Amino acid sequence: MSLNMDRENTAFTFKGGMLPMTVMELSSADPEEIRAQLVSKISQSPAFFQHTPVVLSVEKLDEPHLALERLCAVCRAHKLLPVAVRGGADGVKQSAWALGLGWFPPTEERARTVESVPAVVPAEPAVDIAVPGGGRVYRGTVRSGQQVSAPDGDLVVVGAVNAGAEILAAGSIHVYGPLRGRALAGIHGDTDVGVFCNELNAELLSISGNYKRLEDIDPALLGRAIQVYLNNDHLYIEAL
Amino acid sequence: MAKIIVVTSGKGGVGKTTSAAAIATGLALRGNKTIVIDFDVGLRNLDLIMGCERRVVYDLVNVIQGEATLNQATIRDKRTENLYILPASQTRDKDALTPEGVERILSELKEEFDFIICDSPAGIERGAQLAMYYADEAIVVTNPEVSSVRDSDRILGLLSSKTRRAEQGNDPVREHLLITRYNPERVDHGDMLNLDDITEILSIKLIGLIPESEAVLRASNQGVPVTHDNSSDAGQAYADTVSRLLGEEVTLRFHQAQKKGFLSRIFGGRR
Ligand SMILES: Nc1ncnc2c1ncn2[C@@H]1O[C@H](COP(=O)(O)OP(=O)(O)OP(=O)(O)O)[C@@H](O)[C@H]1O
Ligand SMILES: [Mg+2]
């Protein structure tokens, strides 16, 4: 056995990834209250609760002692999978680690006020059509704070995706209009999908977790019609 | 039955209260029985801009909590017939506003008025959401800067999902864009977003454009809504806005930089 690790033999590689993640912003620390609300939420949208990973945000709480273990148990009992905790005092951080959860520092002041209202508001389009094969056609402007997703197929937006909006698809994303927000294609790991738009000004482009921020995009491509594709884990943006 | 119009923006300090006061005044001057309600509990200043701060006895929260009747709390404007003000509380907690309380007040007022103008607090929290919840129409106040446009976009998203009309699947809230503090010279210099950029991003109908104007400052210090100053640019721009709100076609003014004439070059100033 050799200690020399050549590339063939690596067991894994680390990669930067950007996955859509649900933040559960707690406004109560009482596990029973949370349980009650979860029960009513499940009856409204059962599809959401399928071992969905969530980040428990305790930023809004002013409680030095949290029954973190019980909170996690309540979540798991309702098919939510806590993967990390955000915010809270040092004690919260320690108990998160003790429970095998990650810990994130609290978000900065401004982001906090914006998120205290539903983190994302599902957009209400003028026309919204499910197409065969799990895709979705959305006509209208996707606005800041709104999220439109096609969790099972391609997403077509006929209209603008404004800054601060987020669109997601298991398949490809087509925007017939300016793309100024975040576009994440291949959210379940499909690497053969693409992002296409009429006018590129995106805050973030991602295919299967490989992403580019606005800052990383060649300024010469801004404002143009483009396609984005993945090749050997590298994201390419090309004028159309 | 009254039309309920919310004046909202997301971002603070863009001119909501100024606009709510000016538009309510304009509607009343045109013969519509109008009431303007301050939803900014804790930071009330509509009464200052309307010049009635010394006549406030009861407020919105008193009415909601049953400590006063609507009649006791509404203040009749001294200058303008048909115009009434329902002030906010300076001292109460924001949570004193409840959806049921607001609904009860609005439905009572609806019988009696032609227009109910709701001056929303800044932000997208409870207070702002309550101010918009029962609205039939919304005036989204936007300054020509990126952060203001972004916040207006966010508010438009909420208008299409977090209002009673949206929740009950009725006709959507009618959305109007009101651009305020527009300074054509600075727009030409590229310091501010221009009219077309703003309307392109927000893609809703423009109801008016109010120039940056000293008349506004003067008006608010005197407690007289700027609509009364009908020789000023801002006063005229608000009057145009009111006409459009009433369904008239009015050509847009004040969006182009003035070519300075000989006299104004010598004496300065534009008005
Ligand atoms: N067209 C204008 N020209 C010059 N100054 C203006 C104009 N419109 C508003 N202002 C000034 O901007 C400031 C904020 O206005 P106003 O109080 O109406 O904003 P607001 O949106 O109600 O603020 P808040 O979010 O705090 O309630 C005031 O000082 C006002 O005089
Ligand atoms: Mg105000």
UniProtKB/TrEMBL annotation, chain A:
Domain Septum formation inhibitor MinC N-terminal: 12-82
Short name of any one Pfam family annotated for the protein: MinC_C
SUPFAM superfamilies in UniProt: Cell-division inhibitor MinC, C-terminal domain
Keyword Cell cycle (UniProt): yes
Keyword Protein transport in record: no
Superkingdom to which the source organism belongs: Bacteria
Residue stretches making up the Septum formation inhibitor MinC C-terminal domain: 137-238
Entry keywords, A to Z: Cell cycle, Cell division, Septation
One of the protein's GO biological processes: regulation of cell septum assembly
Entry function: Cell division inhibitor that blocks the formation of polar Z ring septums. Rapidly oscillates between the poles of the cell to destabilize FtsZ filaments that have formed before they mature into polar Z rings. Prevents FtsZ polymerization.
Family: Belongs to the MinC family.
PANTHER family: SEPTUM SITE-DETERMINING PROTEIN MINC
NCBIfam families: minC (TIGR01222)
Quaternary data: Interacts with MinD and FtsZ.
Entry protein name: Probable septum site-determining protein MinC
Species per Swiss-Prot/TrEMBL record: Larsenimonas rhizosphaerae
Organism ancestry: Bacteria, Pseudomonadati, Pseudomonadota, Gammaproteobacteria, Oceanospirillales
Gene from which this protein is expressed: minC
UniProtKB/TrEMBL annotation, chain B:
Keyword Transcription part of the UniProt annotation: no
One Gene Ontology biological process: negative regulation of cell division
Chain sites annotated for binding ATP: 11-18
Gene3D superfamilies membership: P-loop containing nucleotide triphosphate hydrolases
One of the Pfam families matching this protein, by short name: AAA_31
GO molecular function ontology, one term from the record: ATP binding
Segments forming domain AAA: 2-150
Domain of life: Bacteria
Family stated for the protein in its record: Belongs to the ParA family. MinD subfamily.
Assembly mode: Interacts with MinC and FtsZ.
Function (record text): ATPase required for the correct placement of the division site. Cell division inhibitors MinC and MinD act in concert to form an inhibitor capable of blocking formation of the polar Z ring septums. Rapidly oscillates between the poles of the cell to destabilize FtsZ filaments that have formed before they mature into polar Z rings.
UniProt xrefs under NCBIfam families: minD_bact
Protein name: Septum site-determining protein MinD
Organism: Larsenimonas rhizosphaerae
